[in-house]
Specification:
- By secondary structure, the protein is mainly alpha-helical.
- The protein contains 5 helices and 2 strands; from the N terminus they run ββααααα.
Length: 186
């Protein structure tokens, strides 16, 4: 059984019901499904893909359906890798994109470290770029001052707490000493 899509071939377009089991690569026999041209485009189901599909349907049916959809996409696009190679490629691409995004905002991205470490590109207007760099450095200095003031205030509050705790502890010790022994000695 072969499919004929060529209009110049003899006979109607569609499935040929002849008993010729000759495949595209010249081998014959009813058991060479994986080697025929039609099936070679889809690729064979690998054992891990079958297991992923079965487990996907058992655990959560959209997972199994996504494995089947991948195999259909694989047959139409001609992708030669298996499901796990594809997933690894996608994960690597996503990680690379995340690194690029992070680097861009750390000042190492497309701007090449220009713009005071903020990742801004040059606008082509030198006066504006100078003003922007000055404003960013001024804001950075204000941020540093604010952080220093926050640390000083935190230290001040910590000292007040320690003093209050010390005062309460001293009062407790005085009251304890004035009340006499809590447990008389035998």
């Amino acid at each position: 059984m072969t499919y004929s899509a060529d209009p110049s071939s003899n006979g109607p377009k569609g499935w040929d019901q002849s008993t010729n089991n000759q495949s595209a690569n010249g081998t014959s026999g009813p058991g060479n499904w994986g080697s025929s041209a039609r099936c070679r485009g889809m690729g064979r189901w690998r054992p891990l893909e079958l297991a992923a599909m079965i487990l996907g349907f058992m655990v959560f049916w959209p997972l199994g359906l996504s494995v089947v959809a991948f195999k259909v996409w694989q047959s139409r696009s001609g992708y030669g890798g298996d499901l796990f190679t594809f997933a690894g490629d996608r994960a690597e691409t996503a990680a690379r994109s995340a690194r690029n995004f992070r680097d861009q905002f750390n000042g190492r991205g497309a701007a090449g470290g220009m713009g005071g470490g903020w990742g801004f590109r040059s606008t082509g207007n030198a006066a504006f770029d100078d003003w922007r760099a000055g404003e960013l450095s001024r804001l950075e200095e204000e941020r540093r001052k604010l952080e220093a003031a926050e640390r000083a205030f935190s230290d001040h509050i910590g000292n007040l707490r320690r003093a209050r705790d010390r005062e309460e502890f001293d009062r407790f010790m005085r009251e304890r000493a004035n009340s006499g022994p809590a447990n008389p000695a035998p």
